[in-house]
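Before the break, one more example. Copy the sequence into your notebook; we will annotate it together after we see the structure.
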Amino acid sequence: MFFDRPESGERAVLVHLNLASEAEREDPREFEELVLSAGGDPAAFIVGVRDAPHPRTFVGSGKLQEIKDEVALHEAEIVMFNHALSPSQERNLEAELCCRVLDRTGLILDIFAQRARTHEGKLQVELAQLQHMATRLVRGWTHLERQKGGIGLRGPGETQLETDRRLLRVRIKSITARLDKVRKQRDQGRRSRRRAEVPTVSLVGYTNAGKSTLFNRMTDSKVYAADKLFATLDPTLRRLELENVGPVILADTVGFIAHLPHKLVDAFKATLEETLNANLLLHVIDAASAEREDNMFQVQEVLAEIGADEIPQLQVFNKLDLLEQSPRIDRNADGVPKRVWLSAATGAGVDLLVQAVAELVGQDMVNEELDLAPDQGGLRAALYRLGAVETEDYGEDGVAHLSVRLPRADWNRLMKKGPEPLF
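Here is what the structure looks like once it is written out:
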C-alpha cells in the first residue's frame, strides 16, 4: 500500500534500537538531525534494546504496540527507523501501523532529493531512488493478478508488478546512460585542467562540518550554506589565486555520513571523482562536535571506499569560535603543515589556511637564478607572463640576471622550448 505524502510538517515517530548484533551503532542525535533536515516534525522518539532484529517487523511485539500507541496519540503520518529495513519488514510494519514507514537509507535519499539543484544531481538522486525502489515495489500493490481481459483491456500477460519492474529497468538504463555522458564531460574538463596543470584542492568532510561556509570565505562565492545535514549536494568549482603559486581549482563536495548507503556512493561517483582526482584534500572537521573523532574515522572510511585515501590531506579544524581558541597552524617535525585551526563563520584563521595550502601545493615549486643572453628575450617575456620573476638586474655585457619562482610544471614546459637559458 502507498500513502499520500503531506505537503509539509509531517509528524513523525522515530525509532532507534540498540542491537547487540550491530558492530557500529547509529547515532540517535544524528538521526534526529536527519529527520529535521528532511522537514519532519519529530513527535516521539522510541528507544529500545534487542539482541537481533525481528525477522518480520524488526521490533518485537511489545515495542510494536508502543509504536502503534504513539502513532495514534500524536496522529503521526510516518514512522522512521534509524536502521536499514528489508522490503518485507517495511511492508509488514506499514500493514501493522497503517502509516508510511521509512528506514535510514530512504530518509537520506529523501534529503538528497530535496537538495539536488543541478541536472546531474537530480539524475544521480533519481537513479539511487529507483534502485532503492526496485526492491520495494511489491509493498505498493495489494493485487498481483494479471492485467484484465475484455475488449480493449487485454494486456501483455504480465502482472502489474512485472510491468512496473520493466518500466523501472528502462528508466534506470536511460539515467545510467545520461550519467555516463556527464562523466565523460567531467573527464574532459579534468583532462583540460591536467593539460594546463592547474592543481585541484578538494574540500571533504562529514556533513555539516562547514565546508560550504569555508568555500565561500576562501573564494568570495555565494554557494548555498546552511546549518543542515547535506546542505551541499552538487559539486562547485572555483578558481583561487595563491601567492607565489598561481591559480588552483577549489572544489566543494557533498558531505559524508556514517554508513553512507552504497546506492548513493555508486550513484554519486561522478561527483566523488572530483575528490578522487584532487592534488590535495582539505579534510574539514567540526572541532566543537562531541563525535569529532568518530566523524573523522567515517570520512576516512568513505575516502578508502572510493580510492582517495592515498591523496595528501590537510586537516582543517573548523568552528573554533565555539571553543574560544586562537587560530593556528600545527606542523610536523619537518615543518610541513598538518592541521589548521580556524572559524569559517567569523573568518578567523582562513588566511592561515590559504598560507598552508600555498605551502603544500607550492612544494613542487622551482626556485632558480637565471642568466639570459640578449637573444633570449622570448623566454624572459614568458617568465614575466607567468609572474615568475622576483628580481632582475643586468650586467655590463647585457646579460639579464633573474631570480624566478614558478611551478615545476610551468618550468618543464618552458624548458621544452629552446634556446636553453644560461645558468
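The chain is about 40% helix and 20% strand. The CA atoms of residues 52 and 377 lie 77 Å apart. Try to locate both features in your own notes.
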